[in-house]
């Protein structure tokens, strides 16, 4: 059983004094060694053993569109949608704000401004039936609540979380294109894991077969690093030094002739991948591009061992927090989705869906769960397990003196210091102990824990 909280605090303070703390102050001390994946891997028996093989991952992924309402099977979409169905889909995402939101200059959005956002949806322009078109994303682009890049916030001066930012899509992501905004510069799209507005110039439209075939083409080069870019290409600016996020999968042109250059650069010292490109008319072209051989990439998905999972997560340590993949970063659920994508594991986009999804083995907690039940569940956590509280998720990296430690992408955490609550602004991917974290003045994370998910377990028995 975990040691008492007071004992744990004493141990943390001792660790801080003995090794030096990566934190300012003693409220949440973290030793420098604990910021290295190797530290936690060394604690694991059989760390390199594959926990979930490719077949088990494929089976769970195949069940995802059948069992998870937030996941969209693009191949199952009909050729067209009727007006009411499409309108309901857009209005579900682009509902009028129910609380006051503030612009960057600090003023509260006025009723006229909100009406203008609603008008930009062009709902009156939806025909009786709308054909479903398809496209590939050509560069990292935001998914928005409304067809605008206007930034809005919950309170004046708090500019970290843009409440119109939903998520982001990456090069090569297939989408169904359903509707155009009033000004023609935005499209309402359905991606496998989300539906929202994206800038039209981030899309290259092609046929259904072109777009859906692209994502399944083999072999694939998997982006496993935190900062991978295509090679500089002076003749094709759109493909030059294109950022590729962790977890992106691209078709690999493995049979490309070694002596055939790409944009004047020899191909033998690089990976030749196929990238989507948007022509002058917005149509899809599939073209070769180079990724330097020295990049952090690999052919095919990583083997899902606990050691590899820790290595991948720690590659993003210290990255700035970005709500909805904003600021070229990630939020808590996006961080884990991108890490697990390097193993071929597909996950719902948001924490609530991840925590409840029936494709993952999980244990749920409600208000009837006792403190003792919660402590027993925490004591049984394993490396790679995911702990959910309302609006947040953390991944277990190991134990110190019987207490769990986690990695998570977080704006900030609160801890109790004497009789007061202290807020520590982390604003990035961070390693912390779990149990000292406070949800609010009256509850710690343990008391508000809603779910423990076991993503290294196969599809639960009976789920199909």
Walk me through this protein's architecture.
The protein has three domains: 5-54 and 316-454, endopeptidase domain like (from Nostoc punctiforme) (endopeptidase fold (from Nostoc punctiforme)); 71-211, no CATH class; 220-299, no CATH class. It is globular, with a radius of gyration of 23 Å. 22% of the residues lie in helices and 30% in strands. A hairpin with a 2-residue loop joins strand 22 and strand 23 (392-400). The protein has 464 residues and is an alpha+beta fold. The two termini are 36 Å apart. It has eleven helices and 28 strands. It has helices at 5-19, 37-41, 54-67, 83-93, 111-119, 208-216, 306-314, 332-341, 351-356, 371-379, 445-448, and strands at 50-52, 80-82, 102-103, 129-131, 133-137, 141-144, 152-153, 165-169, 174-180, 186-191, 194-199, 203-206, 220-223, 228-229, 243-244, 249-251, 270-278, 284-292, 297-299, 304-305, 361-364, 386-389, 392-400, 403-417, 420-433, 437-440, 443-444, 451-454. The longest helix has 15 residues, at 5-19. The strands form nine sheets. Strands 21, 22, 23, 24, 25, 26, 27 and 28 form an eight-stranded antiparallel beta sheet that branches. The protein has a five-stranded antiparallel beta sheet with strand order 11-10-9-5-12. A three-stranded antiparallel beta sheet has the order 16-13-19.
